[in-house]
Amino acid sequence: MDNDTVVFELDGLRIAFGDTTVVEDLSLTLRRGETAALVGESGSGKSVSALGALDLLPPSAKVDGTRRLLGESLDGLPKTRWNALRGGQVGFVFQEPTTSLNPLHSVGKQLAETLRLHQGLRGRAARERARELLVAVQLPRPDVLLDAHPHQLSGGQRQRVMIAMAIANDPALLIADEPTTALDVTVQREILALLARLRDTHGMAMLFITHDLNLVRRHADSVHVMKQGRLIESGTVAQVFDTPREVYTRHLLAAEPEGRAVALPAAAPTLLEAHALSVAFEQGKSWLGRRPAPFVAVHPLDIQLARGETLGLVGESGSGKTTLAMALLRLTAADGEIVFGGERLDTLRGNALRRRRRRFQVVFQDPYGSLSPRMPVMDIVSEGLRFHHPELSDAEVERRVAATLDEVGLPADCAARYPHEFSGGQRQRIAVARAIILEPDLVVLDEPTSALDRSVQKQLIALLRDLQSRRGLSYLFISHDLAVVRAMAHRVMVLKDGRVVEQGDCDTLLSRPQADYTQRLLEASGLGDRT
Amino acid sequence: MTTRRHFRASPIARRRWQVFRGNRRAWWSLWIFATLLVISLGAELIANDKPIVMQYQGQWYVPVLIDYPETEFNGFLPTATDYRDPVVRRQIEERGWMLWPPVGFSYETLDRELDGPAPSPPSARHWLGTDDHGRDVFARVLYGFRLSVVFAVILTAGSMALGVLIGGVQGYFGGKVDLVGQRIIEIWSGMPVLFLLIILASLVQPNLWWLLGIMLLFSWLGLVDIVRAEFLRARNLEYVRAARAMGLPSRLIMWRHVLPNAMVATLTFIPFLFTGAITTLTALDFLGFGLPPGSPSLGELVAQGKNNLQAPWLGITAFLSLGIMLSLLVFIGEGLRDAFDPRHVLSTQTSPTASASSGLPGRSAHGQ
Lengths: 531, 368
Hints:
The complex is a heterodimer of chains A (531) and B (368). In chain A, strand 19 and strand 20 form a beta hairpin. The two termini of chain A are 41 Å apart. Chain A contains 20 helices and 20 strands. In chain A, the strands form four sheets. A six-stranded mixed sheet of chain A has the order 6-7-8-3-9-10, with helices on both faces. Chain A is globular and about 70 Å long. Chain B is mainly alpha-helical and 368 residues long. Chain B folds into two domains: 213 residues, MetI-like (MetI-like fold), CATH 1.10.3720; 52 residues, no CATH class. In chain B, 60% of the residues lie in helices and 3% in strands. In chain B, helix 10 packs antiparallel against helix 12 and helix 12 runs parallel beside helix 13. The longest helix of chain B is centred in the last third of the chain and has 38 residues. The radius of gyration of chain B is 27 Å and the shape is elongated. The chains are: A alpha/beta (531), B mainly alpha (368). At the A-B interface, helix 1, helix 3, helix 12, strand 16 and helix 13 of A face helix 1, helix 11 and helix 12 of B.
C-alpha cells in the first residue's frame, strides 16, 4: 500500500450529552504513516472526540456524523464488530499507566488475552508473540517481564506495556490520548520516539491527543487545534507553528512562560539556611525479620535562601524535591539543622513552632485537592488569619480577605462562593491568597503550575513574580518543568535520587548545564531547541 | 458577606437534600416517623389517667403537670388524687368539670372495671385491648414507642460522640496511638455484652440509665473503624496539610477539616446504630433483663404476646408496632445512604457534561 491510503476519516462529527453539545462539526483525515495531533486546552473536547469517534462514550452521549476506517463506514456497526475493531484495527494508549493495567494479572497474561481474542493465539504461540512485542517496545529483560505484575514496573515501563498491547494486532490506527502526561520528561521523550518508530515500521496512522505544543512541534506531522468543541485551525506543523491563522492558536503558541525573575538586591540577607539536612523513612519489617535499612529520601545537603530570592528545586518524580521542602517546613521529620530568620527551627516544638508557621507558607500542586470543598472561600482564606491574629475584628478580617483576593486578581464577590465554582487557575489563586494573607517571608510553591494549562500557567507565574517584587517574598519553587523554572528562579538546584546533582545561577545553569542529568532534563523539556 | 454565608446551605448539602427528597419512600417514611414521634412525645396529653385541665369550685387545676393531694377535693388521704376513682370523680364533677385525654389510661393504669378477665380484647374502651394485668395496650405502645426512640437517640448520640472521638484520635495521629488503641479495642470488643447485661440484672435493679451506660460502653466500637479509616485517609489530603502548614493546632484541623469528611461515613451509620439500639432494648425486655417491671416497653409486650397466645391482639400489636417502626427507620436510612453517596445519580439530571471532557470512560477498551 502506498503512503496516501486514507486510514481514518471523520466528517462533521458531532457529540452531545443531553442538550449540551461538546463537539461540533469535527472533520479530519488521517493517512498511513501520518501523526495528527489534536491539541487544545483542557475541556476543549479533544479526548471526547476520539472516544466518540470509536463509540467508547457512555450511552447517554449522542454521536452524529460520518466516520470511516479504511473505507468502511463505522455508523451503526453492531457491538460485536466494534469489539473486533477496537484493539484489533484500532489501538489505544491512555494517559494513566498506573490504572490501565490490571494489577492482578501478569504482563504476559494480559498481552496474551489480546492476542487470543483477536488472533486466536494460545499457549506457547501467544507467549512467543507477547515476548516479541515486549522486544518491539524495547523493554529490557523481556523474559522476566512477561511474568512480572504491573506494580513491579515503573510508569514508563507500564506505558510501554500498554503500547505493546495497542500494537499487538497490527492496528491501522493508533490513538494516543496524552500518552506521556503522567511520565517524567526524560521518559516522555523515549516513549514518543518509540511511538514514532512503531508508526513507521507498522505503517500505522497515529492520532496524538495532547495539550503540550512542545511535543506536537517535534512529534507530529499535522496539527488540529480545538477550542470549546470546535476545530478552529488545521494544517501541517510548519504552517500552524510558523504562520498561525487564528488568534487562539497564536495565544496557545505564545503561552510559553516568559520573562525572568526580578533581579535581587546585591546584599540580600539570608532568610533560610539548612545544614546537613536529611530525611529517612523507616521501612516496615516482617514478623521476626530484621528491619531493613531506612529508605533515605533526601541525603544530607545544605541549602540557602536569601530574602526575596527564588530557589528552583528541579528533578523528576521520586527525586526527593517535595520531601525536602516538607522537611524545611517541618511537616516531615528530618535530621539536620534548619535556621529560619536567624532562629533555629528544628528544635522548636508544639505551640512555639505553630506560631512561627505564619512566616513560611505553602501552595500545593493540585488545585482541586488543596481547598476544602466544604468551606466558602472567605473561610478558607481567613482561617489562618483568625488563628494567628485572634485580636482582629470580623470587619478587619473581611477587609483583609477582600484586599488579598484583589491582590491575587480575583473578583471581590468570590469570597462567599465555594471552591468547586472556580477553574483550576482561579483555585490556585485562592491557595496563593490563603498563603500570603499571613504575610509570610517564605512561600514554598510545590509544582503550583503543573496541573494548569499553559496559558493559565503563564498568568499565574506573572502573578507570583509580581507578588514577590511587591512583598519581598522568598520562594522555594518546586517543579519538573524547566520552562517554568527558568521564568521564576534566581538559582536552581537539581536533585536526583535525593542528592544534589548540580546547583547554581538559573540562567547559567540552564544555558550551560554541567551534569549529564541536567543536560538530559533540558533536552527533554525542549528548552534547548530555542535558546 | 459573613452574615449571608450562614443562611446558605453548601451546594453539597443542597444536593443531598435533593437526593433525599427524590427518594419518595424515604421522604414519606421520614414524615410518618416524625409525626409518630411528635405524637408520642405528647403521650401524656393523649393517654393518661389524669384530666388535662379541670375546674373545681371555681379554681383551675392542671393535673397533668401537678399532683394534687386528695384532700384538695374533699378526700381523706393526703395522697395523690386518683381521678379515676368513682367517688372522687363524682365529687369533682358536682362542683366543676374535667377535660380528659382521648384515652383515659396511662401505661401503668390498672383498669379494675373490666367486663371479663384480663387480657381483654379490643373494644371502644380499650382500642387495642388490655394486657394480662388489665393495662391499656394502646397507652403502653404509645409510651413504649417514645421510650424506645428516646433510648435509641441518647445511645446513638453517645456512641457517635465516643466513636468519632476515639476513631478520630487514632486515625489522625496514627502510629503508636493507633496501634495500641486498635489492640485495646480488639480486646474490648471481645466482651460478651448480653451476658454482662444479664449478670448486671442479677446484681442491681437495672433502670434506663444503667442500660444506657452499659450499652454505651460497647456500641461505639462499630463506628471506630469507619471514622478511623476516614481520618487516616483525610490526614494526608492537601488541604489538611495546608492547614497544618498554616500552623493550626491539631484539634482545630480535626474539627474543621477532617471531621466533615468523616461525618459522611458516620451519618450513614446512624440508622444502623439506631435500629440496633431499639432491637437490643426490645430483646432485653423480652428476656426480662431490661427495664424495671411496669415500664412501658415493647419487648415486654412481645413477651406478653408469647405468653398469651389466646389473646392475639397482644402479639399482633407488638409485631406491627415494632415492624412499622423499624421499617420506617430502615427506609430513612436507605435514603440517607443514597443522599450521602457521591456516585448516586439524581434521577432528574441526565449525564453531566463535566465528566465528558476528561474522557473517563475509555478504560474498558483494553484487553478486548
